[in-house]
Amino acid sequence: MTKQQANWSPYDNNGGTCVAVAGADYCVIAADTRMSTGYNILTRDYSKIIKLSDKCVMASSGFQADVRALQKVLASRHLIYQHQHNKQMSCPAMGQLLSNTLYYKRFFPYYSFNVLGGLDNEGKGCVFTYDAVGSYERVGYSSQGSGSTLIMPFLDNQLKSPSPLLLPAKDAVTPLSESEAIDLVKTCFASATERDIYTGDKLEIVVLNADGIRREEMDLRKD
Amino acid sequence: MSIFEYNGSALVAMVGKNCFAIASDRRLGVQLQTIATDFQRIYKIHDKLFIGLSGLATDTQTLHQRLVFRHKLYELREERDMKPETFASLVSAILYEKRFGPYLCQPVIAGLGDDDKPFICTMDSIGAKELAKDFVVSGTASESLYGACEAMFKPDMGPEELFETISQALLSSVDRDCLSGWGGHVYVVTPTEVTERILKGRMD
Q1: What are the φ and ψ backbone dihedral angles of A123, each rounded to 5 degrees?
Q2: Which of A2, A4, A72, A178 has a Cα at 20 to 30 A from A213?
Q3: Is residue B69 classed exposed, middle or buried when 0-12, 13-18 and 19+ CB atoms within 10 A define those classes?
Q4: What is d(CA B18, CA B41) in angstroms, rounded to the nearest whole number?
């Protein structure tokens, strides 16, 4: 008889797609609200977006248990920062903290694929995009998660960003207006939902600008 | 790595108003090394019928030779060109003959049928046909292509608009795929003419 053994994996993939677009004075962060495992939908109304500070929002796909653990670490580190500095962390600082937090678990990683969006110290939109172990880059737009392969080429086509190798460095923010960027994000998700089974149900859009934070919703396909 | 990803490829076909377009990348690689940058994966069967073969390059060429042979026999016996629907069934049958040792390629067939009705279809390596009304994709860049086409395609485009759409979709897709790229081949076929254009893209 062949050797039988129980198998257990500490990881699962709950799917989901995140997109963030940075503009001159705004930032749009969006994610669908479906949470799946395998061919099953666990819930159609699970928010993947979390507000880390007044000017910083994170959207995460991957393994939602790890995401929650990660969010908890970031929240407690941010609370300590507020007590020590008597101010909220800036978005670029939060970007570095997220990278360090991910790399801290380099050999047992958080299975989470994050995009961080917000406004920097000058009030300009910023997007940071990550891999699971903390390699990150400041970009003008990004997409992460199960639908990223479908969305990224379309964003490239619509927003073509300058090479990060150019000297002098060029600004990566998109030339679109806030409402145009929101429409673009909606189009992206409508397309991705057609072909990606892990994306759908509802789209949650968070918009950051000088006035503060605003939340929008759009229905997506539920099949 | 899958044998389907050994050479790298990107293929797409789109339907327009009384016309269609079929496009591919031009790279032939062996895994990550680029061997040729002027590779043809789209073949003309007759003036109104094209087939693109993604996947293992050696099998695409062998399959193409067999298809040309079978089409010539058909022409001799029937004294006419094959209809796209018939041709798709032929390809499907030839692929299924090798059910347990398949040709490692995923074909895309596009043609103009009776009264110039456009026909596009794709199939897997063992000949399961998938007919589509709008667009079909295959190759290593297929996921990117699905995303791009789903966002860019609209029904009933004219030949010029169709060319622009398929080119934009192809170029933006191959730039996110390591195994395909180096420009593109685009064929736009109308009832009266076939236009072949070569696209320059990112050469890296």
Answers
A1: 85, 5
A2: A72
A3: exposed
A4: 24
CB contacts of B172 in chain A (<8 Å) are 153-154, 156-157
Confidence band, pLDDT 50/70/90 cuts, at residue A210: very high
CA-nearest of B46, B74, B39, B75 to B60 is: B39
Question: A149: which chain B residues are within 8 Å (Cβ-Cβ)?
Answer: 143-144, 147, 176
What single letter denotes the amino acid at residue B202? R
Torsion sign over Cα B64, B187, B75, B106:
positive
Residue A77 in this model has a pLDDT that exceeds 90? yes
Residue B69 to residue B78: CA distance in whole angstroms: 14
**Which tens digits make up the pLDDT trace of A143-177?**
999 999 999 999 999 998 777 778 887 788 889 99
User: What is the C-alpha to C-alpha distance for residues A106 and A119, in angstroms, rounded to an integer?
Assistant: 28
Task: Name every residue whose Cβ is closer than 8 Å to that of residue A27 and which is 6 or more positions away in sequence.
Answer: A20, A21, A57, A117, A118, A119, A125, A126, A127, A207, A208, A209
In whole angstroms, give the CA distance from residue B131 to residue B129. Answer: 6
Q: Is A163 on the interface with B (CB under 8 A)?
A: no
At A114, list the tokens. 């994050």
Does residue B22 contact residue B12 with C-beta atoms inside 8 Å?
Answer: yes
User: What ipTM goes with this model?
Assistant: 0.93
**What would the mean pLDDT of A175-192 be, rounded to a whole number?**
97
Helix (H) or strand (E) run with residue B155 in it: none
Residues of chain B with pLDDT under 50: none
Count of positions (residues) in chain B: 204
Going by the DSSP 8-state scheme, the letter that residue A115 receives in this structure is: E
Q: Residue A93's CB: how many other CB atoms inside 10 A?
A: 17
In the DSSP assignment, the letter for residue B4 is G
What is the residue-averaged pLDDT of chain B? 97
Q: Is the pTM above the cut of 0.95?
A: no
Q: Are A133 and A110 in contact (CB under 8 A)?
A: no
By the 10 Å C-beta count (0-12 exposed, 13-18 middle, 19+ buried), A158 is classed as buried
Tally of residues, chain A: 223
In this predicted structure, what is the pLDDT of residue A165?
79
H helix and E strand count, chain A:
4, 12
pLDDT digits (tens, 9 = 90+) for B109-119: 999 999 999 99
